[in-house]
Amino acid sequence: TSHSLLQARFQPELVRCCRVAVWRGETGAELRRFGNVSESYYKTSQLYRRPHHSYHLYRHYFLTLYCQWPPVLRNSNPTMSNKEEKPEESQSNWKDFIYNPRSGEFIGRTASSWALIFLFYLVFYGFLAGMFSLTMWVMLQTLDDYTPKYRDRVSNPGLVIRPKSMDIMFNRTDPAKYREYVKHLDSFLQQYNDSVQEENELCDEGKYFDQDAEPVKKVCPFKRSLLRQCSGLSDETFGYSEGRPCILVKMNRIIGLKPRGEPYINCTAKRQDALQILYFPNEAKFDKMYFPYYGKKAHPNYVQPLVAVKLLLTKEDYNQEIAVECKVEGSDLRNNDERDKFLGRVNFRVKVME
Questions:
Q1: Which of 1, 119, 157, 160 is most buried by a 10 A CB count?
Q2: H/E element, 330
Q3: pLDDT digits (tens, 9 = 90+) for 1-40
Q4: Cα dist from 305 to 36, 122, 133, 150, 332, whole Å
């Protein structure tokens, strides 16, 4: 009778738990699996096991047990229930992290917190940008638009040649072998065309062309026709078709350079027999009127003076490599620095085949 009343008045989960606790005669120690049961409930459970007690005593015990440990009695299998709720809880936690409608947080921060953090970084990076701009402005005030502030590291110019190659090798009977050399020389000499150079200022030979007070610097002309046999005007192949190639030698630009004396180019072959060489202009010198140079911005149309070197090779010189060295001499410009092979000099090799 008591058992039927329990089934009618209590939930199935409660009846199932109570059956384990009472009708199977569980002891107080075994009841610990339902929760932290006090000692008085142990004693009560022993009394309620006896058949002569009334339904009211059972009801009192079951209600007390049900209210004391609701998670245990209301869920007959808590382990399985937790496993089923985990995916739903993780999805809810993820959504709350993105936006929590209860606290109004977005990715863990409220609107005011986000505003403060953005304001902090705005002020911080704004300060860094301002400090960087200020230091750059102070540094730029020390620079000149036309002249470098420090020019003590390069006081002597180097020599370079055109065509731009240290090994000039070709077959004089095959135009395809020397076409690139000829094309490069012709392209380089376009700025020296007589029609272009006639627009420049006529200068006094043998004198420096000082223009310190002039805002716009003038340029002394150097006409392509001065190179004569190596100008490409009378011989479009610059002597390559006949096995007597022309090499153009020039000095690098240095702002404010005024070489003393009369600098000129002297080329020699590194062999026992002397090599016949022609120079154009005939003196092979760099006239003082092309100095000083005032920089690319102040002197935009400036052209460097050139010396053309024509190697008069013979048939005995063909099919062998000839090393040639050209130096600038007749002035205070250095040409014997062992640490810099191009300071005031240049070395190249020529090999003509047939």
A1: 157
A2: strand 322-331
A3: 444 444 444 444 444 444 444 433 444 444 444 444 444 4
A4: 106, 57, 42, 25, 18
